Amino acid sequence: MPVSLLKKGVITLIDQRGDELTAIAEELYNFPETGLLEYRAAALLADFLEKDGFLLDRGIAGLATAFRAVCGTQGPGIAILAEMDALPGVGHACGHNIIAAAAIGAALALHHVLPPDAARVIVLGTPAEELGIGKVELIKAGFFQDIDFAMMVHPSSKRQVIKGYLGLAKIRFAFFGRAAHAAAYPEEGINALDGVIQTFNGVNALRQQLREDVRIHGIITDGGVVPNIIPEKAACYFYVRADDLAEVARVRERVIACAEGAARASGCRLEVTADGSPLAPLKINRAFCDLYSAQLAYLELTEAKAPADKNKGSSDIGNVSQVVPTIHPHVPIGAGLHIHGAEFARATVSMMGKMAVLEGAKAMALTALDLATSSELRERIADEFSRT
């Protein structure tokens, strides 16, 4: 069958089943679950795919809410990633409900339109993106070894195909001192909170000598109990981000040095817990991005003229992009919205949010269709991946 007819089939099927797909996004919105607790969400997505004929493997990589769903018998392995976790307090303020629904829609269309020997379509349910866990564990467990291309979409204020992401390392500091009455016997105490405060002061001084792409931000997770007891324990938690992991590692050591100096100055004992699995920056594959852009043009959708290197966050999709060619385009749900806020969460189930589900499903399915039917496109993307 000509590719043009296959593409029309994809669009027709997604439009016909659009209400089912947007209902998935609404269901996840109404019952938000945080990282590694997405039991209802994972069951909803996996059950939907299983009923449609996908082969399911649940609870993979040691994660109860991760799953793998496959259709197709041979050809390139094309993964569509379905995030599903929500944020504490603000629900789906990062739009993972849209991500999941669009992934299901793209996979559904490909299953019904593509011949089974054209490609292996693999839906990976990837939990705990906000914790930076799901995709990292799936990589470690080998679930990307049979995958040639990976994709997902993310809701945003703009329609943007190329958007940079920073590498990220996490560090926790715990300071241990000695409790004493803060008024009667202050000389007997060793103030653990002083260690935390001096760490923040050291980091703030450090900021003046950092590259422009570096970001350091932290919170106090334990600052004592009451003011009249000198805190015998205090703790803080920092993120270190940069464009490349070498710089992340360099700055992380300098932040640790700030904490070590603060411990010595305050007389505290220090415990450092560093995350063993940093998040990698997103490796941009322009040939792959161009292929997705071509689908937007086919759908008569206009990309925003937005810089790729502004307002960058971090995600475990960066780790995926280091092992297979990956795209992470953005679909619009409303101008001027910013992720991780209540207004953004509400927008995911607005009319524009519903349109974003269908746009993401169509654009990803059309992209996968071209990958499945063109060895030249596959070679071009793979060649760029190996060269960069």
What is the CATH topology assignment of the largest domain? Aminopeptidase
Q: What is the number of E strands?
A: 12
Judging from the principal axes of the Cα atoms, what is the shape?
elongated
Beta-strand portion reads 15-25%
Radius of gyration: 23 Å
Helix segment tally? 12
The SSE string, one letter per element, is HHHEEEHEHEEEHEEHEHHEEHHH
The side-by-side strand order for the widest beta sheet comes to: 1-2-4-3-5-11
> Cα distance, first to last residue?
35 Å
Question: On the 0-100 scale, what is the average pLDDT?
Answer: 97
CATH class of the largest domain: Alpha Beta
What keyword list fits this structure?
2 domains; 18% strand; 6-stranded mixed sheet; 4-stranded antiparallel sheet; alpha/beta; Aminopeptidase; 388 residues; Alpha-Beta Plaits
In short:
With 388 residues, this protein is of the alpha/beta class.
Description:
- With 388 residues, the chain is α/β, with parallel strands linked by helices.
- The chain folds into 2 domains: 3-165 and 282-387, Aminopeptidase; 170-274, Alpha-Beta Plaits (2-Layer Sandwich).
- The protein is built from 12 helices and 12 strands.
- A 6-stranded mixed β-sheet has the order 1-2-4-3-5-11, sandwiched between helices.
- It is elongated and about 85 Å long.
- The model has no long low-confidence stretch (mean pLDDT 97).
Would you spell out the secondary-structure blueprint of this structure?
Elements: H1 3-16, H2 18-30, H3 39-51, E1 55-58, E2 67-71, E3 77-83, H4 96-113, E4 120-126, H5 134-140, E5 149-151, E6 154-156, E7 167-176, H6 192-206, E8 215-222, E9 233-242, H7 245-266, E10 269-274, H8 286-298, H9 317-321, E11 326-327, E12 330-332, H10 342-347, H11 351-373, H12 375-387
Parallel strand pairs: 3-4, 3-5, 5-11, 6-12
Antiparallel strand pairs: 1-2, 2-4, 7-9, 7-10, 8-9
Helix pairs in contact: 1-4, 1-11, 2-4, 2-11, 4-11, 6-7, 8-11, 8-12
